[in-house]
Amino acid sequence: MKLNRRKVLMGGLAMAGMPRFAKAKDDGFLELAAFETQMQLVEGEYPKTAVWGFNGSVPGPLLGGVQGERMRVRLRNELTENTAVHWHGMRVKNAMDGVPGMTMQAVPPQGSFDYEISLRDAGTYWYHSHNRSLKQVSKGLYGIVVARESSPLDVDHDLVVVLDDWRLSPDAQITDDFGNMHDLSHAGRLGNYIHAVVDPLPTHFAANQRVRLRFVNTATDRIMPLALQGVEGWIVARDGMPLARPEAMDQITLGPAERVDAIVDVTAEAGGEVLLAFREGDQGYVLAETPVLAGARARRAPVEALPPNPITNITSVADARAVPMVMEGGAMGGLRGATFKGENMDMRALVQEGQVWAVNGVAGLPDAPLFEASLEETVVLNMQNDTAFPHAMHMHGTHFQEVLPDGSFGPHKDTVLMMRGEQRAFAFVADNPGKWLIHCHMLSHQTAGMKTWFKVS
Ligand code: C2O
Ligand code: CU
User: What are the boundaries of each domain within the chain?
Assistant: First the structure.
């Protein structure tokens, strides 16, 4: 199919852009109903696309509020199959984590589930289906959560930029080929239509305005290299968590599920524009463009670090529990065999089960946890990517910090892109009791076996 990827932001009525959160009803619950709906995903003469959304839109309603607040969300399932919502990157209580079969029962059609979520950390998070997630997230069951800092930042716009990669047929419908063996065993379900939703959508920027951009990669499998034009700025947070020192922003690469918060100044002159592009080699596809008008402002001083979140910083891994995590399998990976559901299987048997990736020789979710940590113990995951593909390794329950070669620790992250052949270590304090997943957030790989879990008690 040939889809025009250049999407022009025509501008709605929204003026200054600050997040507008969905509102709870009188009983304190915000209703999140999952159902199929039609959406004008592709501009032009294309028909509407049948999607699965929350409250009739993709992304679903913007949830959140101010750090420290609590939100109550009632998920209602109006689909014809089970679903569940996971709060990606949020340090929630285990029972609220939204993992069917581990922390809750999947919500059946016509069923509902009440979540109570504390906004412990400021930053940019997201929610998505965690049941048959390759299919359900591909179809659109996701949305963004923003927890604002308790004292507002000095910015003129605060925008969410939601990136997705859709695999569409020539009539702009989501293709129904979820989990075919080629996708599962290679780089996943890559689409043919990369799309950005900017919320709220600005009609224009003014020269020297300061804009906070909250990038979220919701794609099931696509790594997104992004470039911006007409702005200069800093990355101030990754995966929701503030960086101790803002980094000068150049190109941004987001693996599936990763987020970056940037604060940028509009440096394009009046009459110019601000462009966001998906960059592949020396090709770029414009995802969003906003005209720049004259402004009275002078450029502000460089940004300062955001206030830190109340998460423990790793100071030493001297007494940590070390856990090896070897990722194996996939095409060209030479996986000879693995254990699946307690049985040793050769490659042929594994393929028949749709399982082609393994962690430490086990494909799929093992009965026994990868490790058990006691509360407040420091754990180091020694990840090793022995496959021919990158993986977006994600941990539930808390964030980890990379143990860097010089002995210092990287920023708090919940998802990290492990390139082929890489060996890297990640440390965290096991301070959230319960059963938590670790899996590849390339949801094709997760579906096909790259997942495990650990227990904190
Ligand atoms: Cu974003 Cu286990 O998920
Ligand atoms: Cu993977």
Answer: 29-293, 321-456
Residue of minimum CA distance from atom 1 in ligand 1: 88
What's the farthest any 2 CA atoms get from each other in the chain?
A: 69
- Minimum-distance ligand to the CA of 125? 1
Among all bound ligands, the one having the nearest atom to the CA of 388 is 2
Q: Whose CA is nearest to atom 3 of ligand 1?
A: 88
Query: What is 321-456's CATH number?
Result: 2.60.40.420
Distance of CA 248 to the CA centre of its chain: 22
Angle at 196 between CA 194 and CA 197, to 5 degrees: 145
Which residues, 6+ apart, have CB-to-CB distance to 215 below 8 Å?
A: 124, 161, 163, 226, 252, 254, 259, 260, 261, 262
Residue-wise over 62-97: b if at least 16 C-beta within 10 A, else e? bbbbebeeebebbbbbebeebbbbbbbbbbbebebb
List pLDDT tens digits, range 310-368: 999 999 999 999 999 999 999 987 778 999 999 999 989 999 999 999 999 999 999 99
End-to-end C-alpha distance for the chain, whole angstroms: 51
What CATH number was assigned to the domain covering residues 29-293? 2.60.40.420
Q: How far is the CA of 445 from the centre of ligand 2 (A)?
A: 5
Compute CA 422 distance to the chain's CA centroid, rounded to the nearest angstrom.
21
160: helix, coil or strand?
A: strand
**ipTM strictly over 0.85?**
yes
Instruction: Read off the pTM.
Output: 0.95
- Joined together, the tokens standing for residue 259 give 């987020």
